[in-house]
């Protein structure tokens, strides 16, 4: 769809959906720093957090310009409340153990990769350019999460049990990612096949069962979140909000 | 050079030090080009190894892992490099404390990258220590059981955002003053590691300085936050250079071995002289009423840090010793099932002769 045919508010909501997924994912990954299972993983998780944060900043800046109300990336990140955030529920879920974090990363990157790939061909040139940069980074995230899913699934009895539990816990939240939205620059409904094509072989190699589809919690894209998001935002926004108008 | 004047944040506070790092790198290459005393591949068979070792040190050549070295030299280096690596790892905590609350996305990105660098420095330094015949696992065990130390500075809390700035400016600044001479350390792998580490540290110091610069020229509350952080971090930063020369146990032998090149008090003085000028540019006050220029010494007179406090913190009774080591132990323990899984996975692949995914 040509972006000029879509109302600005709708375009804004789509941009914020992309941006908030990346921002909230970065915030969660940042919680791992200095607590990862090994030093190499501290480096890797910080790296992935930085990628997501970088994409979020580009998208928020663009959203602010499109809106034309003078809001920059920080105004959008720090001064919106949870009901104004448009991220999917999956990214705001707590980190859990390392298996839960890897399940979240596997699923979100297996969604973001075909999404960004498709967006590189969309008619919105600025969005296409951001997607082109983010796509390369997300390919690495998917690779990293896939390798860990396989190692943990096919590692020890304990790691297998934890990885299966993590996949079972997070799987329901993947459905929201593919809710049909014909007005979006790329309709997410068309991405689920690519997602399954990436995820199912990883689960099989990891000797993990692919969970049955059933419960499909949603609401994030319209601002109805889990209880977790407002805590995440309270922490993220506390200092910025304590000093209105200050520059940092 | 240490009294390097810099007019504003754009020039960065550590440029003079960075020049010294680059000079050390040039000297390292020049020494390699000059070649070692004796034959190219080491001493002739009948050379006394102790004499050859001394000759290498005297010729400002680097000792390499394959060279004979006195046990005490090896042990001193293992202790020093491991402590340095541990400091990078524990040092991730006080700054990591502010990643989630960084007040702008730009600051959040820079802080994440900085803490990531520290993990990278830790990895790099553990690898340098491993060239001396210990394993990283052994060193981590020594840290977790308290048998090896880390820099006492990280046992102080980061209570506000400005503390991130003060750590960058003062703590990283002190670390650079300490570490720049180590770029000329006689042990090759450590000297080379320090060249790389110092280059990144100068970026860290700059970001800390910029944080404080922004706060000091911001709202009254931001300014107060910056001054409070400088007030709390100044003396602990001075203590980072260790006890006064009269009480320093390791110094003399390390100087002879060219592991250490300047005394604790010399380095502390350089740091003070550097900071006074920078504090002036920041328009922040260093919390020392007796700080004044001494024309005769061509250096600033200053109040010594409380060395009794330093000893208390080193021996385990600082504000955050327990918290820092508990956190590291917990992360290590919580990660054990992950490391075991990775090892089990690799072992299975080897048994089945199937390609393993790389760790």
From TrEMBL, chain A:
Q: Which Pfam families match?
A: PaaA_PaaC (PF05138)
* Gene3D superfamilies, per the entry: 1.20.1260.10
Q: What domain of life?
A: Bacteria
Name recorded for this polypeptide: Phenylacetate-CoA oxygenase subunit PaaC
Species: Plantactinospora alkalitolerans
As recorded in Swiss-Prot or TrEMBL, the protein's gene is named paaC
UniProtKB/TrEMBL annotation, chain B:
Does the keyword Oxidoreductase feature in the UniProt annotation?
Answer: yes
Q: Which UniProt keywords are given for this protein, alphabetically ordered?
A: Oxidoreductase
Report if keyword Oxidoreductase is assigned.
yes
Q: State the SUPFAM superfamilies in the record.
A: Ferritin-like
The EC number(s) attached to this protein equal 1.14.13.149
Enumerate the NCBIfam families for this protein.
Answer: PA_CoA_Oxy1
Report what the protein is called: 1,2-phenylacetyl-CoA epoxidase subunit A
């Amino acid at each position: 769809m040509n972006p000029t045919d879509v109302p600005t508010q709708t375009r804004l909501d789509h941009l914020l959906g992309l941006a908030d997924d990346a921002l909230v994912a970065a915030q969660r990954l940042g919680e791992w720093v200095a607590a990862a299972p090994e030093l190499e993983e501290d480096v890797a998780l910080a790296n992935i957090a930085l990628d997501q944060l970088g994409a979020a900043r580009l998208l928020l800046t663009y959203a602010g310009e499109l809106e034309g109300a003078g809001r920059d990336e920080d105004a959008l990140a720090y001064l919106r409340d949870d009901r104004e955030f448009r991220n999917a529920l999956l990214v705001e879920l707590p980190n859990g153990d390392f298996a839960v974090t890897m399940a979240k990363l596997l699923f979100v990157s297996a969604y973001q990769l075909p999404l960004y790939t498709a967006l590189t061909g969309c008619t919105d040139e600025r969005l296409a350019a951001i997607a082109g940069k983010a796509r390369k980074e997300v390919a690495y995230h998917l690779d990293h999460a896939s390798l860990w899913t396989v190692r943990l699934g096919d590692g020890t009895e304990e790691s297998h049990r934890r990885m299966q539990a993590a996949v079972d816990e997070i799987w329901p939240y993947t459905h929201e990612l593919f809710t049909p939205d014909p007005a979006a620059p790329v309709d997410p409904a068309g991405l689920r096949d690519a997602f399954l094509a990436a995820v199912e072989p990883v689960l099989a190699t990891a000797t993990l069962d692919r969970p049955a589809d059933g419960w499909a919690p949603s609401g994030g894209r319209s601002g109805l979140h889990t209880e977790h998001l407002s805590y995440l935002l309270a922490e993220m926004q506390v200092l910025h909000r304590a000093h209105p108008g200050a520059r940092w | 050079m240490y009294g390097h004047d810099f007019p504003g944040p754009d020039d960065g506070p550590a440029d003079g030090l960075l020049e010294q790092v680059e000079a050390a790198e040039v000297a390292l290459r020049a020494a390699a080009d000059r070649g070692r005393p004796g034959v190219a591949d080491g001493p002739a068979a009948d050379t006394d190894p102790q004499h050859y070792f001394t000759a290498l040190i005297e010729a400002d050549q680097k000792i390499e892992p394959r060279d004979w070295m006195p046990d005490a030299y090896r042990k001193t280096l293992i202790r020093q490099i491991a402590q340095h690596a541990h400091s990078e790892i524990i040092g991730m905590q006080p700054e990591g404390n502010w990643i989630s609350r960084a007040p702008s996305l730009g600051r959040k990105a820079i802080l994440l990258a900085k803490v990531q660098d520290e993990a990278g420095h830790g990895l790099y330094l553990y690898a340098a220590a491993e060239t001396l015949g210990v394993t990283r696992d052994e060193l981590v065990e020594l840290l977790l059981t308290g048998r090896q130390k880390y820099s006492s500075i990280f046992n102080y809390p980061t209570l506000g955002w400005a503390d991130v700035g003060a750590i960058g400016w003062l703590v990283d600044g002190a670390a650079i003053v300490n570490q720049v001479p180590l770029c000329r350390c006689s042990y090759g792998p450590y000297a080379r590691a320090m060249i790389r580490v110092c280059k990144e540290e100068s970026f860290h110091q700059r970001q800390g300085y910029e944080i404080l610069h922004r706060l000091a020229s911001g709202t009254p509350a931001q300014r107060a936050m910056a001054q409070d952080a400088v007030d709390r971090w100044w003396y602990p930063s001075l203590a980072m250079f260790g006890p006064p020369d009269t009480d320093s146990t390791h110094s003399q032998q390390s100087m002879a071995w060219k592991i250490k090149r300047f005394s604790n008090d010399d380095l502390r003085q350089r740091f003070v002289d550097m900071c006074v000028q920078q504090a002036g540019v920041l328009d922040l006050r260093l919390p020392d009423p007796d700080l004044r220029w001494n024309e005769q010494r061509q250096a600033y007179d200053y109040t010594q840090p409380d060395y009794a406090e330093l000893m208390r913190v080193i021996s385990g009774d600082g504000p955050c010793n327990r918290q820092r080591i508990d956190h590291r132990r917990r992360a290590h323990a919580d990660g054990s099932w992950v490391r075991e899984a990775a090892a089990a996975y690799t072992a299975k692949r080897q048994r089945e002769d199937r390609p393993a995914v790389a760790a």
